[in-house]
Amino acid sequence: MVEDLFSPAVLQPQCSAKGCRAAAAWQLLWNNPKLHTPEYRKTWLACVDHRETLGSFLDARGFLREVKPFTAAGDAVIS
Ligand SMILES: [Zn+2]
């Protein structure tokens, strides 16, 4: 993939959807009870277009715990 627009100065958190490079607008906090302790939260970032897609994916598996607006870098620890 050509990263012609890549620059650390404009680098910002991107959507977690496969192949999507849009800026994150939402953070989806989820937990897989088979792998994680109940308090543990994984974080996925989603752009406006993928909030629904990623949210449904997690919700269908019973993993989705919380969806919050993503405002700034440093807001979320991506895990
Ligand atoms: Zn996206």
Commentary on this structure:
The protein has 1 helix and 3 strands. The protein has 79 residues and is an alpha+beta fold. The protein has a 3-stranded antiparallel beta sheet, covered by helices on one side. The longest helix has 10 residues. The site of zinc ion (ZN) has 7 residues, from loops. It comes from Actinoplanes aureus. This is Acetone carboxylase.
What is the alpha-carbon Rg in Å? Answer: 13 Å
How many strands? 3
User: Distance N terminus to C terminus?
Assistant: 24 Å
Please give the domain count.
1
The strand order across the widest sheet is 2-1-3
Biggest sheet statistics = 3 strands, antiparallel
Tell me what portion of residues adopts beta-strand conformation: 15-25%
Ligand set: zinc ion
SS summary, helix count: 1
Overall average residue pLDDT: 85
Question: Uncertain regions: pLDDT < 50 for 5+ in a row?
Answer: none
Organism: Actinoplanes aureus
Protein name: Acetone carboxylase
